[in-house]
Design brief:
Length: 178
């Protein structure tokens, strides 16, 4: 389990229309936000990423750099990017499932074609959203076992506004005896 105020695992990926991505050198003003999504086969992911693309300028105004990441190959990631139509949104692809597990993401097995008729990969990671400080430590993290009930991006923007204005620390850091 990742712990707030502690370093997150390394993350290095190719992206579709931007340079290679490395979290350690992302250099955001305030935060990096890594949005792990299930892949092209997931209609909920497409809707979620549409909202992220719409709100991307708001995150950028707050000094937050954003990347959407999946274990899809470049072709499938490109199809998702075409659906989302947010050219400024970085799409990282080829996430190794070993790395997904290091981030605490759940891994699912294929159930064949989804409701939109796209074949699921044999194995893929379930969603997660992580907000990371420029020093590489975890500020916020949420992982899910299902494709639905994800954090809303407008609520994350409000939380980031609060965190910035109040210099609010990452919470959940206690690991001592209970």
């Amino acid at each position: 389990m990742l712990m707030p105020r502690q370093p997150v695992p390394a993350l290095r990926l190719d992206t579709l229309a931007h340079e290679s991505y490395e979290l350690a050198s992302d250099a955001p003003e305030r935060f990096s936000m890594v949005v792990f999504y299930r892949g092209l086969h997931c209609p909920v992911c497409a809707k979620y990423l549409l909202e992220l693309g719409r709100l991307l300028p708001e995150f950028e105004k707050r000094g937050v750099k954003v990347i959407a990441v999946s274990s899809d190959d470049a072709g499938r990631a490109g199809e998702m990017a075409a659906k989302v139509q947010a050219p400024a949104l970085r799409f990282g692809y080829g996430l190794a499932l070993r790395v997904a597990r290091e981030w605490g993401l759940y891994i699912s097995t294929s159930r064949g074609k989804t409701s939109i008729g796209i074949e699921e990969p044999a194995l893929f990671s379930e969603p997660g959203v992580f907000i990371v400080r420029p020093d590489g430590t975890l500020y916020f993290g949420q992982v899910q076992t299902m494709p639905f009930a994800r954090p809303h991006f407008d609520e994350l923007l409000a939380a980031i506004d609060f965190a910035i204005s109040k210099d609010y620390p990452a919470r959940g850091e206690y690991t001592g005896p209970l």
